[in-house]
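Dear colleagues,

I hope this message finds you well. In preparation for our joint manuscript, I am sending the DMT family transporter (Lysinibacillus composti) sequence together with its predicted structure, so that both groups work from identical material. I would be grateful if you could confirm receipt.
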Amino acid sequence: MVQKKSFEIGNGKKVDLQLKADFMMLIVTLLWGSSYLFMKMGLDSLQEFNLIALRFGIAFILAGAVFYKRLVRIDMKTLFYGFILGSLLFILMTVVTIGLKFTTISNAGFLFSLSVVFVPILLAIIFKIKPEKKVVFGIGVAIIGIALLTLDNGLKVNSGDFLIILGAVFYAFQIILTDKFTKNADSITLGILQLGVAGAWGLLFSFIFEKPHLPNTPESWGSIMALSILCSAIGFIGQAVAQKHTTPTHTGLIFSLEPVFAAMFAFMFVGETLPAKGYVGAILILIGVIAAEIKFKKTFVRKRFNKTVEGTEA
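The corresponding structure tokens are as follows:
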């Protein structure tokens, strides 16, 4: 009986810790959902590369200050991995930031979430890893959703929607590379480095193609600080901490709420709405993303049930 009680207490603590981690992931997802609104606001007074430089430059300084001990112990391999991931982050954020100028916040949120279904597609193409049936189903549903959300009466996709979809493809590449790199390097250090590299590329391109400057209105300062502190620094740190205590399945499902939050912020603050077919498309994309992520563990549930019955009988 003592062993059983000890097990229950230990399991209770574990469940409680996972619930806290899931709640933290929910907050992170909420923050990332707001990033589309803040980027749209920032683009009113800042050019694309300037915005990227400020967002990730400030985030790098803040995240680096929190995890400075990790940066002190950095090696050349981790530095190289961070450079690759940071460069890819810069490319995808450039594409997404430009795309936001020509599409809605809601469209951007739902279309960018497609990175979840692009990952297994790329794995199948590059590494010949056959996707599961649930993933194939999710991809099919998401494609129908994309068509309803983006195609106009002339069956054409506007440039902004296309760029957001392209950004989702780049993000899927980054997810795959991050998975490979973190097997041989510290994930938090890599995350901090990629923020710095993306910010540095943004600053360089801003000097070449733009006239970089600091925000000159309270609104633009607010959007940049929100993107840097809330969406990037706190978002990154929160994700790193939370993922230690929850499962990949929980993480994926919670992240699938990001476009929902994006649409919610768009409606609340700028009164943005979608046409009827757009909402249907958005719902189908969300269903496709969740279908690709969710895992049914019937065997695990059956084992837990049997153990519970045995414990009760004892």
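For the figure legend, we might mention the following. The chain has one domain: 31-313. The chain has 14 helices and no strands.

With kind regards,
E.M.
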